[in-house]
Amino acid sequence: MALQRGITELRSGKTRRGIKRILRALDSGEDNRSWIRAKARLALVRAQLGKASSTKLKGNRRAARRLKKRSGLLGAAEKQAIVMFNLGEPEFALEGLLLLGDGYMDLYEEMVNYPPPRSVDDPEAYRALVMEKAAILLTKAHARYDEGVRVAARTQWVGSVTERLKQKRDALTAQLAGPSPG
After folding, report:
1. Is 138 in contact with 169 (CB distance < 8 Å)?
2. DSSP letters spanning 22-79
């Protein structure tokens, strides 16, 4: 019951309280139903990715700190997704992978669209360098989408999440295979 209550609190905007309640309930191990544990972990992934996307990159020095914070949140969400897999609940694991891929794509877009510092002489060269360095985020997003498609095929899971994973993976495959923009 505590897990569902924490999930509800997260959805109603009481983020801090919901996260604490979920973590406390997961640590206590009182509810051994794998589906509710996976659902609670998915709620944590949503909360972490929501916090990551609300952490905007701005300012020269602050942007670097915020980028580290954001990558830490993405890493924490990734760990939650791994635990969801181990629980054996494909519905929640697939949605978690979709959210992770979207999180990596959002970070890539923000990094590429971030204006170059005023001290940069050649903004085009700077942008090309940022795109080159940030390409790892596209690769990570593609890996999450592809992993989701493979898990869906292995578990024979059919649904809207599977279709969205396929669409995003195929679009990203075409983007990665095409010439680099810029």
Report:
1. no
2. HHHHHHHT----HHHHHHHHHHHHHHHHHHHHHS---SHHHHHHHHHHHHHHHHHHHH
Instruction: Express each pLDDT in 47-102 by its tens digit.
Output: 999 999 988 888 777 888 888 999 999 999 999 988 888 888 888 999 999 999 99
Amino acid letter at 33? R
Distance CA 4, CA 99 (A): 20
Residue 170 and residue 182: Cα distance in Å, rounded? 21
CA distance linking residue 19 with residue 96, whole number of Å? 17
Structure tokens at 9: 């609190």
SS3 13: coil
Does residue 182 carry a pLDDT above 50? no
For residue 168, give every residue at least 6 positions away whose Cβ sits within 8 Å of its Cβ, in sequence order, or none. Answer: 98, 101, 102, 141, 145
Q: In Å, how far are 16, 47, 89, 163 from 12, measured between CA atoms?
A: 11, 12, 24, 28
